[in-house]
Write a structure and sequence with these properties.
This protein is mainly alpha-helical. It is 43% helix and 8% strand.
């Protein structure tokens, strides 16, 4: 695999992350610098296109898209910082993911909670509007515990559109556009 050179900004971000992770005594620092579980890719994705494998930018305004844990390819996963061939196998082994808690539990067998949280910045579990738990709903931009509780209380939803109509009363239009890309197709 041909590696592309890192930009100055990507290099600076990786250094800051490595120092922060090392200061926390986190095993995730190993993943940033490379580990024995397989080669890792430390270049952060800068802009992935929205497709069946990705969801739109986060509510923080970044242009990076998140990867759908159930449909992303091995090559897609290798774009996630700290993910090597071993973690790609683990990500794919536990498919299909139905909740974010399932992802945390399964991947947490191999890395610590801080690294799992770092992975979550780049991946998502598709949201089934009538089945998703609070943590899975909180992947949607702008959704917090209170909004997730309201969405759960409003079930069942006749369709994704009915869910999005309800969600639109609590988040911005831009966040709603992104949230659409996280939903399981019905």
């Amino acid at each position: 695999m041909k590696h592309q050179p890192l930009t100055l900004m990507q290099t600076a971000i990786m250094v800051v992350l490595a120092v922060a992770l090392a200061a926390c005594g986190s095993a995730a620092a190993l993943a940033v610098s490379g580990d024995s579980a397989g080669s890792t890719n430390s270049a952060a994705p800068t802009a992935l296109s929205v497709s069946a494998n990705t969801a739109g930018a986060s509510d923080s305004g970044t242009s990076a898209a998140r990867l759908n844990l159930n449909t992303a390819s091995a090559d897609d996963f290798l774009t996630v910082p700290g993910v090597g061939s071993r973690m790609v196998r683990e990500f794919m082994e536990y498919r299909p993911y139905t909740t974010l808690l399932q992802f945390r539990r399964e991947i947490g067998k191999y890395v610590d909670a801080a690294q799992v949280a770092a992975y979550e910045q780049y991946v998502f579990v598709p949201v089934d509007v009538n089945q998703a738990d609070t943590e899975t709903l909180k992947q949607l931009p702008g959704v917090d515990d209170a909004i997730a509780a309201e969405l759960i209380a409003g079930r069942p939803y006749a369709s994704n559109d009915a869910f999005l109509t309800r969600l639109a009363t609590t988040i911005s239009a831009a966040q709603l556009d992104t949230a659409k890309t996280y939903l399981v197709t019905q």
